[in-house]
């Protein structure tokens, strides 16, 4: 029924919440901003970095935003050593889906630099036909990211699904006319995701493969 499976990255394929939160909190403190609560930072996971920073600190000016953006990137990519691991079953399930003929893609709020590094570290890069990052297009929940993926792969929206753990993922999918799958173990509580009427919800990543098998 579906041919193209589009995945969010952070909170859907990899458990990076702790590192994101710690890196943003440290960067803000380092630059003299008011302390950022963990829940507030968790809430912006999935947005592009400029959009996330402005959501956290609405009054921030552009020069200060760029400075915080740079310091966050430094802490996340270099300084912070909090482990980021693929969720259980992600690697094997993605390989099986690829072998079954599904086309795989990534639509993420990460920067291109950050995603390329993550794809190299996890060795998942060859599995994905196309990836799109927030610094290459508009941030979620704007649907442009998905429109671009669909156009470049020549895939009708009806043949694709968006798999994600935040409201931004599901809202983006709905706006693009793409079916959505809610992931319950990520950044946003499942009650929030259900408001966007996903096709299904999964509590462990391998459940996605079982659901697709049932459809087939």
Explain this structure:
- This protein is an alpha/beta fold and 216 residues long.
- It folds into two domains: 143 residues, Rossmann fold (3-Layer(aba) Sandwich); 63 residues, Orthogonal Bundle (DNA polymerase, domain 1).
- Helix content is 47%, strand content 14%.
- The protein has ten helices and eight strands.
- The strands form two sheets. A six-stranded parallel β-sheet has the order 5-4-1-6-7-8, sandwiched between helices. It has a two-stranded antiparallel ribbon with strand order 2-3.
- Helix 8 links the parallel strand 6 and strand 7.
- The radius of gyration is 17 Å and the shape is globular.
- The N and C termini lie close together (7 Å).
- The model has no long low-confidence stretch (mean pLDDT 95).
- It holds the Pfam family HAD_2.
Please write out the topology.
Elements: E1 4-7, E2 14-15, H1 17-30, H2 38-44, H3 49-56, H4 62-79, E3 85-86, H5 90-99, E4 103-108, H6 112-122, E5 130-133, H7 144-153, E6 160-164, H8 167-175, E7 179-183, H9 190-194, E8 200-202, H10 207-215
Parallel strand pairs: 1-4, 1-6, 4-5, 6-7, 7-8
Antiparallel strand pairs: 2-3
Helix pairs in contact: 1-4, 3-4
């Amino acid at each position: 029924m579906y041919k193209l499976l589009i995945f969010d990255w952070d909170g859907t394929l990899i458990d990076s919440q702790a590192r994101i939160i710690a890196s943003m909190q440290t960067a803000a403190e380092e630059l003299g901003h008011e302390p950022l609560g963990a829940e507030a930072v968790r809430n912006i996971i999935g947005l592009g970095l400029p959009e996330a920073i402005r959501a956290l600190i609405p009054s921030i000016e552009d020069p200060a935003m760029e400075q915080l953006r740079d310091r966050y990137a430094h802490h996340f990519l270099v300084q912070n050593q909090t482990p980021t691991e693929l969720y259980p079953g992600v690697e094997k399930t993605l390989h099986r889906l690829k072998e079954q003929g599904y086309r795989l893609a990534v639509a993420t709020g990460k920067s291109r630099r950050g995603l390329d590094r993550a794809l190299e570290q996890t060795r998942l890069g060859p599995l994905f036909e196309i990836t799109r990052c927030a610094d290459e297009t508009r941030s979620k929940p704007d649907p442009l990211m998905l429109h671009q993926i669909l156009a470049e792969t020549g895939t009708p929206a009806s043949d694709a699904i968006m798999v994600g753990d935040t409201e931004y993922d599901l809202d983006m999918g709905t706006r693009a006319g793409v079916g959505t799958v809610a992931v319950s173990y990520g950044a946003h509580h499942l009650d929030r995701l259900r408001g966007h009427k996903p096709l299904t919800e999964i509590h462990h990543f391998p459940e996605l493969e079982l659901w697709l098998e049932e459809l087939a």
